[in-house]
């Protein structure tokens, strides 16, 4: 069972995607942005390989204005070597990539202009995955669209437009239930009738459950039913998993995922083998958390995680910092759920000046014997400001700069600096 995340990578330098507004989208600007975005994707793939993440959803904006006439570049030719190299890296390391066009890519719109743009957008997404040399198991996820006052007619328009698509697009397309218009039974009915693989989204199903004859189906029964729409050439069936943010409207993704709830969900899956795309605000952090929650027990997984989290946790709570250190002392156990429960609890605890100063002093310990007097004075001045309740940003920027200059391996991947990236 593989776990992945979508589009952005939190707390990892060199992974930021770049874009521009339309009036600045000159060929030179677009070329520069595309090159930078492909380099960022390369860093993301490296991170995922290192951390055992096998699924990743590539941002639709990786080629800025990829389906818009303003981008007249033949980017698939101009960046052929980069794209082919990225595809080779993904394939040789068992990574499965996907894409998910946005809310304005609506295939069942009654507006012909909207449909033309949707088709152009699907063509762009397909061309990107093709340019990487990826097989048809690397999918494009799409919602059915709107209802426009007549759901049956809208569903019929979707299937009619689907059959008008080029074969190379149809081979990549998979459809997903949404949280407003189309329940999982309606999407599954289209998938079965038209031979389109179906992605089950658990949170969308809870917000917009089936109102027909299958309303008593469990999540696991829906997942099993959707899995039947996937064939060998489509790869392993995929699902989307998320948890509700209790402070926001129904359907809003949580800031992080509860590892215990995720592990229980996976246990309920039993022998149903699926790939799981987690949709959550902290992206890769929850993906690694969830992968570790269901992995073969190995305390070294948690020790690697702790090396990234420890100074961020200390900044929030010294008490929890000490509790986690104690938890990891017994090398014969794998307390993965408690480990992440404590980390989540710490990160929900507001920082205070005393903890912020304490964490900064721990990080400064890597540099205090190797920096000049001017840098020491800058550190002491920034530390004093933090002790009086001012922002930690200036202090962290100084420590991050020292980390990069001195290439401190333990700190380069520290989440202590995540808010600066």
Structure summary:
The protein is an alpha/beta fold.
Walk me through what this model shows.
This protein folds into two domains: 3-294, Divalent-metal-dependent TIM barrel enzymes (TIM Barrel), CATH 3.20.20.150; 299-420, no CATH class. The chain contains 18 helices and eight strands. It has helices spanning 27-50, 75-78, 80-92, 112-131, 151-164, 167-170, 184-194, 202-207, 219-227, 259-269, 284-294, 299-316, 318-327, 336-347, 353-364, 373-387, 393-406, 409-412; strands at residues 3-6, 55-57, 96-98, 140-143, 173-176, 198-201, 238-241, 275-278. Strand 5, helix 7 and strand 6 form a beta-alpha-beta unit. Helix 1 (27-50) packs parallel to helix 3 (80-92), helix 10 (259-269) crosses helix 11 and helix 12 (299-316) runs parallel beside helix 14 (336-347). The chain starts with a strand and ends in a 9-residue tail after the last helix.
Based on the model shown, name its key terms.
421 residues; alpha/beta; TIM Barrel; 18 helices; 8 strands
